[in-house]
From TrEMBL:
Matches recorded under Gene3D superfamilies: DNA helicase RuvA subunit, C-terminal domain, Immunoglobulins
Top-level division of the source organism's lineage: Eukaryota
UniProt domain Nbr1 FW: residue ranges: 79-171
Protein name according to UniProt: Nbr1 FW domain-containing protein
Organism this protein belongs to: Thraustotheca clavata
Length: 206
């Protein structure tokens, strides 16, 4: 029997019609103050079962919520320089660090900044506790030179959870491409694609 059923069973055993007695028993069983108990009982025209259901529908719940950790290291992309309108792929990895399976409606949603021509919402697999998942963003750099940023969040039932995903990318003109220097070494970038390998995190394709 659920807690709700047990509460209803207890209240169904109340036979008194005395309002003060009802308020006292309502307050004792639900651990409420007299004013709150009076409000729900009066709102339900002193129908105890209706009052209980009204209270349970509005009472806060302690149900566990999904949690996540962002695993990917995007520093290579953040330290690189790209051409206007260049296309790259970023692989984003997440882990379920909570105590429940992610809900079936979990998605990665654009939050603020520049969306780099990425869809505003992308479905995410509802992974079990401790499991990992990965999603690929097909990014198109803006046409304007400068540093651009965008933020994405995991979302379920309209609520964000887990670490925010910050993507910071720098666009330079054609002349700056001739000498792209990152951490004192030259990084050569092909016209179409280059791939950076990270032993700790998923690859980032450019």
């Amino acid at each position: 029997m659920s807690d709700c059923d047990e509460l209803l069973r207890l209240f169904q055993s109340i036979t008194t019609t005395d309002h003060d007695a009802l308020i006292n028993q309502f307050s004792r069983l639900l651990q409420l103050d007299a004013a709150t108990s009076t409000f729900f009982l009066e709102s339900s025209n002193w129908n105890v079962e209706t009052a209980v259901n009204m209270y349970l529908a509005t009472a806060p719940t302690d149900a566990p919520k999904p949690e996540a950790r962002f695993l990917s290291d995007l520093s290579a992309a953040q330290n690189a320089q790209f051409l206007p309108y260049q296309h790259i792929q970023l692989h984003l990895a997440f882990q379920n660090t909570g105590c429940i399976r992610w809900p079936i409606n979990t998605k990665l949603a654009f939050y603020q900044g520049n969306n780099f021509s990425v869809e505003n919402e992308m479905p995410i697999p509802c992974i079990d506790i401790g499991e990992h998942t990965q999603i690929t963003l097909n990014v198109t750099l803006p046409g304007e030179c400068g540093t651009h940023y965008g933020t994405w969040r995991l979302v379920s039932d309209g609520e964000c959870f887990g670490d925010p995903v910050w993507i910071v990318l720098t666009v330079v003109d054609e002349r700056a491409k001739e000498s792209m220097i990152v951490d004192t070494h030259v990084m050569e970038v092909d016209e179409d694609m280059a791939t950076y390998h990270d032993n700790m995190q998923p690859d980032m394709e450019i």
